[in-house]
Amino acid sequence: MIPAWMTVGDVFIDIHDRLRPYDEIREILETIERTWELKKYYNGSNLGGRWIFQVFSREFVAELAEILNVIVERTTNAGPILEIMSGDGILTQFLAPLLNHRIIPTDAKSERYQIEFPKEIETISALDAVEKYSPSVVLVSWEPFLSMDTISIVEQGIPLIWIGDPQACGHPDLFLEHCNGEVEHPCIRIDSPYAIGRHDSLLNGDYRTGIYVYNCLSDWFT
Length: 222
Prior knowledge:
- With 222 residues, the protein is an alpha/beta fold.
- The protein has 2 domains: 49 residues, no CATH class; 167 residues, Rossmann fold (3-Layer(aba) Sandwich), CATH 3.40.50.
- Helices cover 29% and strands 16% of the residues.
- The protein has a 7-stranded mixed beta sheet, with helices on both faces. Strands 1-2 form a two-stranded antiparallel ribbon.
């Protein structure tokens, strides 16, 4: 039996129509995984027609905002927080009220995904956006598979927060060289209990999504 609040007619609600608490998010995703095809839900078969790669709960966003605020406080660069590859910009929308600094959402707006881009999302490639804004920190969630843009950003020494499943997005070298290699400031994995991505199975306890922080010191987050 599917609880009435989870659907409108026979369509599941959009979990990102507002910032929901983690327990509520988890309940609906477990229900969808148990009774329906979760992949279809993530690929736009929801009331909002929204493509979903990372799930944003109230607790996850608060945790991410705290990480961003710490980095901005510690860095000497006064530039804005820059979200690249932001899609429909929902993460920036959720984060903005919790940040102590300006955040700018940008996206190259590829036609590969059926995403409705609000007009406030600046149309610009990731590397051009970095050059334009000289950001204090770059944020990216679910970088396209084999994209090398974040490798270039890390090599420039810019603080980067990378969110996603290393097996399904981004470039393997970002993790081989900077998480396992001998570099001056290796990446920091922050194991969030609230991180849920499109390939995670809540019912099976299979969690593949993580938060990875580059060009920062580990003692900033202790």
